């Protein structure tokens, strides 16, 4: 696998500037297109799965993280507080405390549970500059996050549903999990002390993994400070593993924020929080996708999905019309005309684009195109309208197939 940093620069996806700072990459138009498409996929999948989306600010008062426990257990990874008059505000190290407060701001009946709250939001980590680079070690992270507030009885089903969302996303993205890890606490003061809570949460996750028939390994010392988690691991270009997706069970923060719902008995009960991320941060997900596919993204994710190659200037008008047809269907397309070199050179330059539509004199006269697929297949000339309809269908279905015969 290639290195995503090198490829990302070559493909014009993202870059960084010492004046912005290490670990603070910016996204170029093609990278932003990939990221947008990925984010839209995630939001759409979440809406279909009954999640509601919220927005919350990337800052909060220091006190908020004292209550959540981040200040005690996670401070080394946080940016130092900023003084603002008599207050101290902190760049948030996670979204959970904000979501707990949003939940707490309204009263909830058991009938509203499970309440699934999602946000693709920013958070910050004070990584040391020595280890920064590309999109995998960053100080500004945009996390595909969600918190499910539910009853104890609902935890297993919600966690299993989250694993299913992860499985489907990996199918659409062509990602393979290297392994599933059950991350348990280790020794030392990194974890909140509540042995019964840890046992109960870990037992629930084991139940979910067994129920889903997933093979996993238990590893101590990899849990979040507030609870155990299922980590879905992927391997990078050097074979190093990283966590992409997680499902976590948390009894701690609902306690700390005194969350409750009104049960069928009219009494107040404590909900459980299930934290889950389908693709993790968009930074790590895109870095992994760049390396995995060598820049040849699945068609639905590719920054340019179709490149139109008129053989000569005589076909320029038909080429422009085909691009307009693509845009009307929501497909991303562009013309690469003879001014960019010989047909062979233009085909080589577009080797990562899923579809290359060649239009010569014969095709122009018949309103057809000679389609070449990125995998080397060359199809007989087909009516241009049919080609766009079939590509539109595959892209709309977020298929990893380029063509179906
Ligand atoms: Zn969380």
UniProtKB/TrEMBL annotation:
GO CC list: cytoplasm
Species per Swiss-Prot/TrEMBL record: Saccharopolyspora erythraea (strain ATCC 11635 / DSM 40517 / JCM 4748 / NBRC 13426 / NCIMB 8594 / NRRL 2338)
Molecular function GO labels: ATP binding; metal ion binding; threonine-tRNA ligase activity
A Pfam family assignment: tRNA-synt_2b
Reaction catalysed by this enzyme: tRNA(Thr) + L-threonine + ATP = L-threonyl-tRNA(Thr) + AMP + diphosphate + H(+)
GO-annotated biological processes: threonyl-tRNA aminoacylation
Top EC class for this record: ligase
Keywords from the named record: Aminoacyl-tRNA synthetase, ATP-binding, Cytoplasm, Ligase, Metal-binding, Nucleotide-binding, Protein biosynthesis, Zinc
Keyword ATP-binding: yes
EC number(s) recorded for this UniProt protein: 6.1.1.3
Signal peptide, first to last residue: none
Superkingdom in the source lineage: Bacteria
InterPro entries: aa-tRNA-synt_IIb, aa-tRNA-synth_II, aa-tRNA-synth_II/BPL/LPL, Anticodon-bd, Anticodon-bd_dom_sf, Thr-tRNA-ligase_IIa, ThrRS_core
Similarity remark: Belongs to the class-II aminoacyl-tRNA synthetase family.
Protein name, entry field: Threonine--tRNA ligase
